[in-house]
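From the methods appendix. Each design record in this collection lists the tokenized structure first, followed by the designed amino acid sequence. Records were kept in a plain field format so they could be parsed without special tools. The example shown here is representative of the layout used throughout.

RECORD:
FOLD TOKENS (358 positions):
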């Protein structure tokens, strides 16, 4: 049974996280001291500088040689179980595209918590510094593996829409402009580049009536897009550089020069608060806090706070986690949805309002 002292420790870790979020929300909605144009600049600063440097600092300070393999395996198994269930859902859904759309959103809700911003500050006072180090290991996997998987799913959906929508009944070719970093649904990007017809990738349809291109065709369209998204994402560099420095630091027992460490800290220390501030700005820019119907909101909350932790409990038990490790695994799976899945959903125009509510 949780004691009042433990409850206070949890609240003292969680409540301060939401203070900057509420300030940001009020600054836009109630007091009008920040304009929508200024919100874009603040969000850009958070995405390009604050959060990547925070990721680098957290990962580089963690001893990855002491990684708990079973703990990481439980997290991986949870996501694989959800992916397998969603793959079956896609096959059985009346519309394969509708099934894919829902599957991407459900994967985000059930398996991608806000580990960096909420998870570490919450779990550290509950279970100690070692628990926080374990959660950092999941941050590494989440940023490098699972966010890449999420981008792949979004691009897979975009490729299907692009090819099936433009060439519904015959053989054709698709050429992707080298500057395009995503196969957006309508073929256009924010920077003005366009997905064009050309002679790069040949598309299916021997019977003249097929609408779904072969998987190999979609894969040839998707992989370049995923690569371009990753190499232009500051979080990718933050993860790789943080991982590299962590391996060097704890292998050879060397420290970062003070002038470099202090330069990173001055921005990364602001990363946590700025990330929550940015989330509050996102919420304030939406027409309403609760997007969609109450039924949809209740269903997504059940997926986030019940289904995700339940699958994690099954995965943890399967790999042999017991005691405190089991509790840490379940708690980190039950924290709110991460910010990055919402950012991706907004960029790809897929259920962004629902994820903002989450």
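DESIGN:
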């Amino acid at each position: 049974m949780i004691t009042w002292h433990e409850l206070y420790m949890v609240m003292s870790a969680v409540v301060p996280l939401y203070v900057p979020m509420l300030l940001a929300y009020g600054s836009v909605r109630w007091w009008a001291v920040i304009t929508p144009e200024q919100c874009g600049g603040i969000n850009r600063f958070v995405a390009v500088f604050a959060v990547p440097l925070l990721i680098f600092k957290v990962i580089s300070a963690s001893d990855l040689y002491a990684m708990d393999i079973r703990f990481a395996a439980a997290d991986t198994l949870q996501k694989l179980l959800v992916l397998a269930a969603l793959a079956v859902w896609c096959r059985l859904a009346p519309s394969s595209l509708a099934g894919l759309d829902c599957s991407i959103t459900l994967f985000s809700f059930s398996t991608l918590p806000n580990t960096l911003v909420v998870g570490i500050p919450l779990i550290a006072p509950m279970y100690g510094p070692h628990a926080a180090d374990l959660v950092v290991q999941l941050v590494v996997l989440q940023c490098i593996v699972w966010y890449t998987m999420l981008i792949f799913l979004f691009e897979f959906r975009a490729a299907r829409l692009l090819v099936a929508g433009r060439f519904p009944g015959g053989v054709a070719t698709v050429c992707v402009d080298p500057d395009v970093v995503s196969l957006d649904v309508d073929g256009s990007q924010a920077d003005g580049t366009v997905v064009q017809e050309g002679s790069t990738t040949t598309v299916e349809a021997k019977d003249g009536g097929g609408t779904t291109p072969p998987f190999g065709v979609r894969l040839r369209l998707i992989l370049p897009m995923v690569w371009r998204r990753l190499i232009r994402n500051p979080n990718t560099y933050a993860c790789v550089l943080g991982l590299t420095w962590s391996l060097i630091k704890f292998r050879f027992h060397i420290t970062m020069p003070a002038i470099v460490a202090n330069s990173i800290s001055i921005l990364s220390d602001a990363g946590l608060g700025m990330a929550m501030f940015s989330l509050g700005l996102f919420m304030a820019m939406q027409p309403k806090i609760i997007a969609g119907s109450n039924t949809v909101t209740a269903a997504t909350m059940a997926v986030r706070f019940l289904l995700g932790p339940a699958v994690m409990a099954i995965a943890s038990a399967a790999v042999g986690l017991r005691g405190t490790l089991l509790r840490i695994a379940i708690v980190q799976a039950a924290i709110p949805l991460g910010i990055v899945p919402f950012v991706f959903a907004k960029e790809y125009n897929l259920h962004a309002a629902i994820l903002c509510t989450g």
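APPENDIX NOTE: The first helix runs from residue 4 to 29.
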